[in-house]
Amino acid sequence: MAEKLAPVERGARRRGPYAGTSARRAEIVRAALAGFAEHGYDRASLRDIAVRVGVTHAALLRHFASKEELLLAALAQRDADDEALAHQIMTSRVPAERVLASVLEDEFSHPNHQRNWLAITIAATNPSHPAHEFFMARKQRMRQYLNGGQLAMLNDGETVTAEEKVTMVLAMIDGLRIQSLLDPDRPVLPLLERFVRMISTNEA
Which residues contact 93 (CB under 8 A, 6 or more apart)? Predict the structure, then answer.
C-alpha cells in the first residue's frame, strides 16, 4: 500500500488535458501514504513527500493545499487499496473467515507503520481532527457492507443489528492491533479468523 507508482515510460502519451495532473496527484498520494506510514502524520512533512515524488514543495501545493487535505486523500487511497485487495482475495476463493485477516497481513508485518496508522485512528476520535468525518463515514460504509448479508450472524434467536456487527468487528481489529504491538511474537490474526467464523453463518 505504500509503494511508489512505477515511472511513466519515456515517450508515453497521456490522454486528455488533465491526464498529467491526475497522474501527478496519484504519485503524490502514494508518496504521502509512504510518508505517513514511515514517519506518522505529525512528523511527516509536505517537503519530504515532495522529495519522494521528485517535485518542489510549491508544485505539491498546487495539487494539495495542506497536509490535512493530503491526509484525507491518502486515507481514501488506503481504503481503496484494501477494498481492491479484499476483492482479489475473495475471487481467489479464500475461505470467508480469512478475508479480513489476509487484508491486514501486510500492515501487521510492519509494526512501525501499524503504530503510525493506529495513532492517526486514535487522533481522529477527536471531532475536531481533520480525519474524524472520514472515519465516521468509513464506519458507515462498513456497516452497509455487513448489513448486506456478507457477514450474517449465527441464528441463535438474538437479533444483532448492523451497527452492533460493525462495532464488534472494528473493536476486534483495533484491539488486535494493540495486542500485536505489545506482544509481537504472538500471532493475533488467527484470532480474527476464529472470531469471524464464530459470528458468521456458512453462507457468509
Answer: none
From CA 135, how far away is CA 133, in angstroms rounded? 5
CB 151 within 8 A of CB 143: no
Q: Is the pLDDT of residue 10 over 90?
A: no
- One domain for residues 111 and 47: no
Local structure of residue 124 (DSSP, 8 states): T
**CA of 116: how far to CAs of 36, 37, 192, 196, in Å?**
7, 6, 21, 26
Q: Is 12 contained in some domain? A: no
More confident residue, 145 or 201: 145
- Write down the pTM of the prediction: 0.74
Distance between CA 61 and CA 31 in Å, rounded? 14
Provide the grid cell at 112.
512501525
**How many helices, marked H, and strands, marked E, lie in the chain?**
9, 0
**119 and 65 share a domain?**
no
In a domain, 3, yes or no: no
- Residues 88 and 2: their CA atoms lie apart, in Å, by 18
Residue 78 lies in a domain: no
Question: Which range of residues forms the domain containing residue 130?
Answer: 94-203
Q: How many CA within 13 A on the CB side of residue 158?
A: 7
**Where residue 26 sits, what CATH number does that domain have?**
1.10.10.60
Q: Please, what is the average pLDDT of the chain?
A: 81
